[in-house]
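#onboarding

Welcome to the new folks! Below is a worked example of what a typical request in this channel looks like: someone posts a single protein sequence, and someone else replies with the predicted structure as tokens. Don't worry about understanding the tokens yet, we'll cover that in week two.

Example request:
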Amino acid sequence: MTDSNAARYPLLAIPHIQLHGTVDDMMYARFKEQLAGVPANGPIVVSLTTLGGDPEMARAMGDSIRLLREYTGREALFLGKVAVYSAGATFMSAFPVENRFLTRNSRLMIHERSMTSTLQLSGPLNTIPPVLKAKLNEIADSIRIQEEGFADLVRGSQVTLDELKRRAPDNWYIEANEARDLGLVLDVI
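Example response:
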């Protein structure tokens, strides 16, 4: 890659929304604040550097991008810088592959959601099955949400949902050029 590749995408030089750090409530607040200040017309560029965080906050930011696109028809471009891990990849999945970019030497990391939970069973036997069923329902719904996000991430790429589901349990690290070659992003700048 040469610097001339970046010249093909001048809009990416100065993102309207620049996010970095843990995907959490504070990042979501910064995102909403910066989104409110974007120009009224033209494409919106969002850059992100993150080692991960709360996937639900990533989904909420992604929904804002989707709604903006659907209600206004405005194009939104994603620029991943250095690290787009975990919840960052979840946020990236809200952008169509033709609107995704990574900077040179960036990496994506995709993995399954994880859960840490302690289940205390105590009380009359008739009260225990509903507690177990509720936990199983929580797990099943979390898996559905994960698979929806995985499907969004690979839609339009050369990666199949089955391949992603096979590789995600082992923390799949993808270098920028490989992500481009797999069609997960349009280009590397």
